[in-house]
Amino acid sequence: LLLWITNTLTPQEIRDKLMSHDNDFEKAMIDYLENCHMGEFLDATMNEVANEVKSKNYNMKHELNPNEMDTEKEPDVPSEAYLFLIKPPVECKKGQCMGCSQCTKTNNWMATFKNTVNHLVYHLNRHTCQIGWCKEVKSNATCKARFPQEVHETLSIDKETGHINMKKLEPYINFFSPIVTFLIRCNSDVTCLLSGTAVKAVIAYVTDYVTKSSLKTHVMFDVVRNIVERK
Fold first, then answer.
1. Which domain covers residue 139, as residue numbers?
2. Of 3, 25, 41, 42, which sits most exposed with the smallest number of CB within 10 A?
3. How far apart are CA 66 and CA 89, in angstroms?
4. Does any domain span residue 212?
5. How many CA atoms, within 13 angstroms, populate the side-chain half-sphere of residue 145?
């Protein structure tokens, strides 16, 4: 999905403004980009989310069968992907409210929202390099999906070129939008296109993807057979 916002500035106009030392525009641009997408978990690290996921899977499994040994790997698709969406409660209109029931509901919903998004991103957006998939059979092979990605502690802007380095704390996940992930509950890659080259590249990629011919039946069965044989 490629979205172009009506009446927005062109990539070149954005770059020119960033290079002109317009502090108000720069601050507004940073706020906008950081609210559009992110490259790390919500208030958690990869290890913290991994421990939460493992603990949740263990508890769910042993509630169903307490005597079963914990030998199976974690599921590829999290349980959150199958749950119905829960709309947020009505926001409290009081100023400086101290623990009213409406604020408590909102806080609980936000905690659930963050937890759900983190689990979805951990399962669906996290990249794991595999030989034969994104790497060739070589000890020094590089990942074709270009992981691990460069990490940036904070968002920074190069005043000489206008290039923006987005804040990114996790090298093995793509940028994503928490709201989009919460709504569609599948793998996604959300990127702001801030150059003409990036726009053209994405248009070419999307066009190639949507016009790709479907696999032949015998090819699909061959894939299934290979997967079964691996197990």
1. 11-194
2. 3
3. 36
4. no
5. 18
**How many distinct structural domains can be found in the chain?**
1
Of residues 81, 62, 71, 64, the one with CA closest to residue 124? 81
Tokens of 135: 């790497």
| CB-based burial label for 117 (10 Å; 0-12, 13-18, 19+) | buried
Residue 81 lies in a domain: yes
Only one residue has tokens 């079963």, namely: 68
In sequence order, what are the beta bridge partners of 126? 173
Each residue's pLDDT tens digit, 19-34:
988 899 999 999 999 9
| Residue 214 within a domain | no
Rounded Cα distance between 181 and 189, Å, is 10
Please state the pTM of the whole predicted model.
0.77
Distances in Å between the Cα of 132 and the Cα atoms of 82, 139, 145, 151 are 30, 12, 12, 26
In 3D space, the residue among 162, 212, 198, 183 whose CA is nearest the CA of residue 2 turns out to be 198
Asked whether 30 and 177 are in contact (CB, 8 A), the reply is no
Whether 58 shows a pLDDT value over 60: the answer reads no
Mean pLDDT of the 97-101 span? 78
Q: 218 in a domain, yes or no? A: no
Specify whether the CB–CB gap between 60 and 79 falls below 8 A: yes
